[in-house]
Amino acid sequence: MTFDRYAPHLRATLALGLPLVGSHLARMAISVADTIMVGWYGVNELAALVIAVSFFNILFFLGMGFGIGVMGVIAAAIARDDETEVRRSARMALWLSIIHAIVMLPLLWHSETILLAIGQAPVVAELAQDYLRIAGFGLLAVLCQLTLNSYLAAMERPQVVLWITLAGLPLVIFLNWVMIFGNLGVPELGVEGAAVAAIIVQFLQLAAITAYAAWLPVARKYHLFKRFWRPDWAYMRKVFLLGLPIGLTMVAEGGLFVGSNVMMGWIGTRELAAHGIALQLASITFMLHLGMSNAATVRVGQAKGWGDGGWMRDAAVTVTVVSVCIALIAVATFILFPRALVGLYLDVNHPETPALIDFATGLMFYAALFQMADALQVIALGLLRGVQDTRMPMVIAGISYWLVGIPVAYGLAFVLGLGPKGLWLGLVAGLTLAATLLMRRFWRGHARGDWTPAPSAV
């Protein structure tokens, strides 16, 4: 029976994917807490946080390819019982993550000049730089966390990462309450307080994940941290060539959303704040798909290591169907409960709140429109990374997001005068094209390839 064929894959996918989803959601919840609490503090500060986080994320996306790309390599190496490749690839991914974080610091430190150059309001640009000059030091922590998360996920041990990430949520809420608003005798720091809280939590989480990766019995044979300071230039080059296209792909996709933030800033500060709320709600559902995409990378990477094409196709079908079901639930939620969701972010007593809720609620319909395309494109990327196909997806992302998505958004918003709605329709256009081309590449390419089946257990 069909169900009997896919049931083992479903169980294995959920066992691996749900902790990864939980980790991404917990990480997103920390960002949501920042947005909500800064939103309670002030509209200018909220707009500054939206643009600052967008700036930070672009640099994060560029560097996260090393951590994400190594996931499929490690999964395939474990399937082949190649301890050397596991150790060397994971170690050099950490090296590259650290190097990237250091190189990006000057851009974060001088971000006000860049933000002013792209048309942001002076008060927003100044506050955003205040945030980034502190939060920028957390780039190293989050990139190394991501790499270790991939290392553990490839071993099908993502559960502790979930608990470590969840533990950071109440801590960041408490630190935000203290530092943003000046409670318990601490000076009132506003948006800078959110940055201080963020880096404290990020480095504590990195310390905990590092300790777990070093302690985990199943991982001890890989000796990841033994003589960590010794470079391995051959594997560094391999991870760099695999990870850079992934980073550029993430920049292309993230740039689509950052571009929409920048263009919304041209329209107005209030509109940017409302846009940030709607976009973050959409980003929460994206975290669900991202977790399943990570599971797809591991499952397909295992199949590649075993050389079993039928197993790969069944695993790919399973994870795609799961993500489609999640997208359908998200569409229904955004359409049925938009005002309730938006209202969580704002102080009901603030005089600007009613207008912000009305504006952001109108955008939630467009957030619902791209849910399915967003789900399919990120799942397709996960499948392709599992077979270590990263260069053509980079090209597809560049075309979809920068030659279609951004121009369509600008044309509809400013040339045809649709304003904010036009920007969101541009997002829909870019994501839909990317989903179509990426899924086509996997199913008409790798999923149809010649394979030599090998005995394996789900």
Structure description:
With 458 residues, this protein is mainly alpha-helical. It has one domain (2-448). The chain has helices at residues 2-41, 43-79, 83-109, 111-117, 122-135, 138-154, 159-179, 191-215, 233-267, 269-306, 309-336, 338-343, 353-369, 371-386, 391-415, 420-444. Helix 2 packs across helix 5 and helix 9 (233-267) runs parallel beside helix 15. The longest helix is centred in the first third of the chain and has 40 residues, at 2-41. The chain is globular, with a radius of gyration of 21 Å. The two termini are 17 Å apart. The relative contact order is 0.13. Mean pLDDT is 87; it is low at 450-458.
Keywords:
mainly alpha, about 450 residues, about 85% helix
Helix content: over 70%
Instruction: Provide the gyration radius in Å.
Output: 21 Å
Structural class: mainly alpha
Number of domains: 1
Order of helices and strands: HHHHHHHHHHHHHHHH
Q: What characteristic shape results from the CA principal axes?
A: globular
The number of distinct helices, counting runs of at least 4 residues, comes to 16
Number of strands: 0
Beta-strand fraction estimate: under 5%
Main sheet, how many strands, which sense, barrel?
Answer: none
Mean pLDDT across residues: 87
Distance between the termini: 17 Å
- Detail the poorly predicted runs: 450-458
Pfam family, one: MatE
Main location: membrane
Membrane topology: Multi-pass membrane protein
Organism: Paracoccus broussonetiae
